[in-house]
Design a protein that fits this description.
Elements (H helix, E strand, L loop, with lengths): L2 H11 L8 H30 L14 H4 L17 H17 L1 H4 L6 H11 L7 H11 L7 H20 L11 H11 L7 E3 L6 H13 L5 H9 L2 E5 L2 H14 L5 E4 L16 E6 L9 H4 L9 H12 E12 L8 H13 E8 L12 E8 L5 E6 L14 H11 L8 E5 L26 H25 L1
Parallel strand pairs: 1-2, 1-4, 2-3, 4-5, 6-8
Antiparallel strand pairs: 5-7, 6-7, 8-9
Helix pairs in contact: 1-7, 2-12, 4-6, 4-7, 8-12, 9-10, 9-16, 10-12, 14-15
Length: 485
């Protein structure tokens, strides 16, 4: 129903010099979608209030409502071209009046979890990159075709928006940090089994894939939920933090389209929070995340952690362990070298995980699971509060090379989800007794005893020796060639 509208919007954005990638297309579509959604939400609330004989207090003043500036309608319900701005007038109104007005809501809001605060946060972080008012008018007309009224419409829009996020993930190195393959997320959620009434948290929320899939899962396994359970799902279940402006905007829009009307997403750098300041009231029942790895954090940020390292993923893992309640459960993606690295931070973190949590499952993912990412990953499943006795490993092997045109799918993970319930042995799965691992290194390398591929992690010294040997061999060959000449 709406697929053509999304295609048309992208076609117009391609004409804009300031919009050059899928990230730009998604960003610009997002702020316009958000304002269209906000208008639909306010119209619904006004209608409900009217039916109860009450008057609804609109969040936005009349000149800044979608129906006033973007799509004024005549009595026939069609766009009133006499009132609808276009060209420079439209662009100047958006840049000079609309965005500053909306950004001002951040100061007026009563708290960070209010819709008003999120309006202010979004429009203080992103900019209108559509320089042609005529292109902007064309895009607005396409956005205005979209409807958010029924669950069917919201479902289709969320599906199309997820496709845009996936395209961002495929667009290149930067886009990949916004997209975790949804089949992998669904498998992680199925293993962790969140329940209504539990608080679910992602401190590196990205495009909110983990929270959206958890929401879908909880609705699916609780089809007969009551009004109070629905209110709990909407307001007291899903929490996230995100550092990057674009991801923050996308996360909020993605959750809204999935049916969570006021997402509890905070725009902040999670790692600036000192672990010592986390109190019981701050803790969560479930944490699900794919934190960024390979990044570097400043020395003053590292001071917030007991195990100090520049590797962001290792800092996030400490944060996730600390912020879980006793008995809380985690499902966290991390690069597979974490299991075997011999540096002090890696060893100390493995020791912390084993001694403070039950690391019951490790899912070893094949190369190509994440588009554009050169590193292999594992998923750690753990429960806080009891020491690890046994670790069950599963080595995922889809039987084909994964890539952009051949991505991971739900069927690839079905055996893992099924075998994990009983920690069953198979050609791809096995258990390791932690009592048998080296207490100096706490090495948790993936080593399939059933003849599967063993992950070989060579030391830097071995790698440097091989490079030196290859260089010497190359020099010898060149010398022979020179002799022939």
């Amino acid at each position: 129903m709406f697929e053509q509208a999304f295609r048309n919007i992208d076609d117009v954005l391609r004409k804009e010099a300031g919009c050059t990638t899928e990230l730009d297309y998604t960003e610009q579509t997002s702020w316009l979608l958000f304002l269209k959604y906000l208008d639909a939400l306010e119209q619904d609330r006004a209608l409900e209030a009217g039916m109860e004989g009450k008057r609804y207090a609109f969040i936005l003043d009349e000149p800044y409502r979608w129906e006033s500036w973007a799509a004024p309608k005549g009595k026939d319900g069609r766009l009133d071209h006499n009132k609808a701005q276009t060209g420079d007038d439209l662009r100047d109104f958006v840049n000079d009046k609309l965005f500053p007005y909306l950004h001002g809501f951040k100061q007026k809001a009563t708290g960070p979890n209010t819709l008003e605060y999120k309006i202010g946060e979004i429009f203080g972080e992103i900019k209108n990159k559509i320089s042609s008012g005529y292109n902007l008018r064309e895009i607005i007309d396409h956005i205005d075709e979209l409807r958010f009224r029924s669950q069917t419409e919201k479902h289709e829009l969320s599906h199309l928006y997820e496709a845009k996020i996936r395209n961002m993930g495929n667009a290149g190195r930067n886009g990949g940090e916004y997209y975790t393959p949804r089949p992998l997320i669904r498998a992680i959620v199925q293993v962790v089994k969140p329940r209504i009434g539990e608080r679910i948290y992602d401190g590196a929320v990205g495009s909110a894939g983990f929270l959206c899939e958890s929401f879908d899962y909880l609705r699916r396994v609780n089809p007969q939920r009551g009004t109070e359970q629905e209110r709990t799902l909407q307001t007291r279940t899903f929490y996230g933090k995100e550092k990057k402006s674009l991801a923050y905007v996308i996360a909020i829009m993605n959750m809204i389209l999935h049916g969570i009307e006021a997402p509890n997403i905070v725009h902040t750098n999670t790692l600036t929070e000192n672990l010592a300041d986390i109190q019981e009231k701050d803790r969560f029942d479930v944490t699900l995340a794919n934190p960024p790895f390979g990044g570097k954090e400043r020395k003053e940020v590292q001071q917030n952690f007991h195990i100090r390292t520049g590797e962001t993923a290792f800092l996030f893992l400490q944060h996730f362990i600390k912020i879980l309640k006793a008995g809380g459960r985690g499902g966290v993606v991390i690069k597979n070298t974490f299991l075997s690295n011999t540096d002090n931070a890696s060893v100390s973190l493995r020791k912390l995980l084993i001694e403070n949590c039950n690391l019951h499952t490790v899912l070893d993912c094949p190369g190509g699971t994440f588009q554009g990412a050169g590193v292999k990953t594992v998923v750690l499943f753990f429960e806080k509060g009891t020491r690890t006795r046994h670790v069950w490993y599963y080595q995922l092997d889809p039987g084909r090379n994964l890539g952009k045109t051949n991505p991971l799918n739900d069927a690839d993970l079905a055996e893992f989800v099924e075998l994990q319930k009983s920690f069953a042995d198979s050609p791809r799965s096995w258990s390791v007794d932690v009592a048998g691992i080296d207490p100096k290194t706490f090495d948790l390398s993936v080593k399939n005893p059933n003849g599967g591929e063993e992950a070989a992690h060579r030391s830097p010294v071995d790698i440097m020796d091989e490079i030196a040997a290859l260089d010497a061999e190359s020099a010898e060959v060149l010398q022979t060639i020179r002799g022939l000449l």
